[in-house]
């Protein structure tokens, strides 16, 4: 009997988890915060997944400088909405620079064009006729969350500048956000935790470390999707060919923008970053997470922008909050869902 009792407790605990997942209210209202660029950018494919998933209600899209300039993020996402026949979704322009981080020779050499003031390139099919709203991203985020307390999920897949500004703009904002899902960071405590911008820093956090610091310490319930879980993915040519086997406006866009990549590098496997963060909102059972304290180094030295995690608070991280950190992915179920959703007819 002593052996049976813990087993029963385990079974009951698993049952409770399944019930909790089953009782998620769909569709989930989200604000999609993005440093958007057309395919092969992961932001664009994450938006495809969100647009094609009935479990998601996009209340608005907010743009931020990151992968490229704010102007390109806005131009590209407006065009994507037209391609997807979703021009009714409003787009709001956000921060065009990080809170503190300045352009550097290293930033220019390494990756991203977040510091650019150049005019955006013409997106596939030409510039959108749809325009961004006059209201700012921060104003929209704050207004929407405060009008629907504990209802709105923020999905932030670029630098966290807009989110940090919203936190600072309204004292009651953080406690009224239902959940914040972030693609960002790299956790050395867990497997596959190296950085992709510096040896230990992930791109989104490195572009605006101060914004990540403010956001992670805000007390908002956070689900972090770091590089650790992204490295469990591999979009190969075989999976790409399955996606584009069905002709839709979205698969045609992927064929035009991603096809030549696989023609020139047929053995390449693309990691999927923002797509996993978005998928975890649609189906939380696709990922496995651990509760960790996570903080960000904002000292302007060799560890600038590095996310640091621990199972207990350590000296210097007394203000760090405990959040969910994804580290494992059910790749077969994820990629099958991604292919099925992107292939669906646009409405």
**Largest sheet strand order:** 3-2-1-4-5-6-9-7-8
The amount of beta strand, in percent, is 15-25%
- CATH homologous superfamily, by name? Ribonucleoside hydrolase-like
Helix content range of the residues, please? 25-40%
The CATH architecture category equals: Alpha-Beta Complex
Q: What is the terminal separation in angstroms?
A: 57 Å
Give the beta-strand count: 9
CATH class: Alpha Beta
The helix count comes to: 14
Radius of gyration: 20 Å
Total of domains: 1
Uncertain ranges: 1-22
**Looking at CATH, which topology would you report?**
Inosine-uridine Nucleoside N-ribohydrolase, Chain A
Going by helix content, strand content and strand pairing, the class is alpha/beta
Write down the overall mean pLDDT: 93
Order of helices and strands: HEHEHEHHEHHEHHEHHHHEEEH
The dominant shape is globular
Main beta sheet, described?
Answer: 9 strands, mixed
Protein described:
- With 347 residues, the protein is α/β, with parallel strands linked by helices.
- The protein has a single domain (27-343), classed as Alpha-Beta Complex (Inosine-uridine Nucleoside N-ribohydrolase, Chain A).
- Helix content is 39%, strand content 16%.
- The protein has 14 helices and nine strands.
- Strands 3-2-1-4-5-6-9-7-8 form a nine-stranded mixed beta sheet, sandwiched between helices.
- Helix 3 (70-83) links the parallel strand 2 (56-63) and strand 3.
- The longest helix has 19 residues, at 4-22.
- Mean pLDDT is 93; it is low at 1-22.
Task: Give a summary of the structure in a few sentences.
The protein is built from 14 helices and nine strands. With 347 residues, it is an alpha/beta fold.
């Amino acid at each position: 009997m002593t052996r049976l009792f813990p087993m029963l407790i385990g079974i009951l605990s698993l049952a409770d988890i399944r019930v909790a997942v089953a009782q998620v209210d769909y569709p989930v209202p989200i604000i999609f915060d993005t440093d958007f660029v057309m395919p092969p950018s992961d932001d664009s494919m994450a938006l495809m997944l969100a647009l094609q998933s009935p479990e998601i209600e996009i209340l608005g899209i907010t743009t931020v400088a990151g992968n490229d300039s704010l102007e390109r993020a806005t131009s590209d996402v407006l065009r994507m909405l037209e391609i997807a026949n979703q021009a009714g979704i409003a787009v709001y322009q956000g921060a065009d620079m990080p809170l503190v981080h300045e352009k550097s020779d290293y930033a220019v050499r390494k990756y991203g064009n977040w510091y650019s003031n150049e005019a955006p390139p013409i997106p596939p099919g030409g510039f959108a006729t749809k325009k961004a709203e006059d209201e700012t991203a921060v104003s929209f985020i704050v207004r929407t969350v405060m009008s629907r307390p504990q209802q709105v999920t923020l999905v932030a897949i670029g630098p966290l500048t807009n989110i940090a500004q919203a936190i600072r703009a309204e004292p009651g904002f953080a406690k009224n956000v239902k959940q914040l899902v972030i693609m960002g960071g790299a956790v050395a405590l867990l497997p596959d935790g190296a950085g992709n911008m510096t040896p230990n820093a992930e791109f989104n956090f490195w572009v605006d470390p101060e914004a990540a610091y403010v956001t992670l310490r805000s007390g908002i319930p956070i689900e972090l999707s770091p590089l650790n879980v992204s490295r469990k993915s591999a979009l190969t040519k075989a999976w790409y060919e399955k996606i584009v086997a069905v002709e839709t406006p979205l698969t045609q866009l992927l064929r035009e923008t991603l096809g030549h990549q696989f023609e020139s590098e047929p053995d390449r496997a693309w990691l999927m970053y923002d797509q996993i963060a978005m998928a975890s909102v649609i189906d939380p059972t696709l990922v496995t997470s651990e509760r960790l304290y996570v903080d960000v180094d904002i000292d302007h030295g060799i560890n600038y922008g590095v996310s640091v995690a621990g199972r207990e608070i350590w000296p210097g991280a007394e203000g760090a909050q405990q959040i969910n950190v994804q580290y494992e992915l059910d790749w077969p179920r994820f990629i099958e869902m991604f292919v099925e959703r992107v292939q669906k007819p646009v409405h």
